[in-house]
Amino acid sequence: MEMRETVLAWLRDAHAMEAAAIDNLERNIDRFDEYPSVQQKFREDLEQSKRHVEELDLILDKMGGDRSVLKDMSMKFAGMMQPYLGAMASDEVVKHLLAAHAYENFEVASYRSLAAAAEQIGEMQLKDMAERSLGQKKMMADWIDQQLPSVTREYLRKVQ
After folding, report:
1. DSSP string of 20-48, one letter each residue
2. Hey, what CATH topology would domain 3-159 get?
3. Where do the domains of the chain lie?
4. I need a labelling partner for 113 at 20 to 30 A (CA). Which of 7, 18, 46, 138 fits?
């Protein structure tokens, strides 16, 4: 497979990841009423994912990319997450935070790969976008990592 086709495949995957993140956040953001700081951070992440989809749309258009595989990729990822979610804590907030943490780290790895591939084919606009997205996803993953202990402790206090 040519590097350009590899980059297009990663672009499609990144677009699908962001679309899945938007869907997931829109469906679950109200579960965080008891945790306003988490809810606010997830609202910010939702807006950021919407901006990423717009950027990815523009780049896919510029490169002549096909979006036909997006739904399949989103569904594949959702299916991959179900066993992970089922195995975690019974509290929905803790469960969702753990899933979000795994998802953000998945996106970090994907954007890192996309940036490297874009650099290889000389698509510097795409490389810059991927690196910017990588930084934002890394900050979100780190933020969730910091929140997990206190949210989990609060959950454990409630069930004892």
Report:
1. HHHHHHHHHGGGGTT-HHHHHHHHHHHHH
2. Ferritin (1.20.1260)
3. 3-159
4. 46
pTM: predicted TM-score of the whole model, two decimal places: 0.72
Position 125, amino acid: Q
- Nearest CA-CA partner of 56 in 68, 65, 47, 43: 65
The residue among 132, 114, 133 whose CA lies nearest residue 21 is 133
CA distances from 92 to 35, 36, 107, 112 (A): 12, 15, 22, 30
For residues 47 and 157, the model is more confident at 47
- Give the Cα separation of 112 and 151 in Å (integer): 29
Measured CA to CA, the distance from residue 35 to residue 79 in angstroms comes to: 27
